[in-house]
Design a protein that fits this description.
Elements: H1 3-28, H2 39-44, H3 53-61, H4 65-71, H5 75-95, H6 99-111, H7 114-133
């Protein structure tokens, strides 16, 4: 299996898992605001940087955009990825191209640069502080 096939396969698997979980959650409504599926929070009692993203997705699906943003602002890039990646992968499949793989490798190289990596780490740390402060 080539690196391109591994990358596309992993992304598809992650997308399918994300969609399956959201479909399950949306159809059953089993996750309540006081519940968590976060292993880090369950083990430590502290919110992780992405705590609340699942509940934020559910809020988005119910049209509660402000509440979703307050739960975890990471819901927006996550939602964009869940919407755009399947279309991008389908485009590549239909056109027998690897534009997503090229984007992924270029982005990975860019993120390895220290100034941008520092900015991203600070953004994630800020989100983590936000989650802890609001008691997510």
């Amino acid at each position: 299996m080539t690196p391109v096939q591994k990358t596309y396969g992993l992304i598809l698997l992650l997308l399918l898992g994300g969609y399956a979980y959201l479909l399950f959650e949306f159809s059953t409504g089993m996750l309540h605001p006081e519940q968590t599926v976060c292993l880090f929070k369950t083990a430590t009692g502290w919110a992780c940087p992405s705590c609340g993203t699942t509940r934020a997705f559910v809020a988005l699906l119910h049209g509660e955009w402000r509440q979703a943003t307050l739960m975890n602002p990471l819901v927006w890039p996550s939602a964009a990825a869940l919407l755009l990646l399947p279309l991008w992968l389908a485009w590549d499949g239909l056109n027998r191209s690897i534009t997503f793989y090229h984007f992924y490798t270029r982005t990975e190289q860019l993120v390895r640069r220290k100034p941008l990596a520092l900015v991203l780490v600070l953004l994630i740390a800020s989100n983590w502080c936000w989650n802890i402060w609001k008691g997510n």
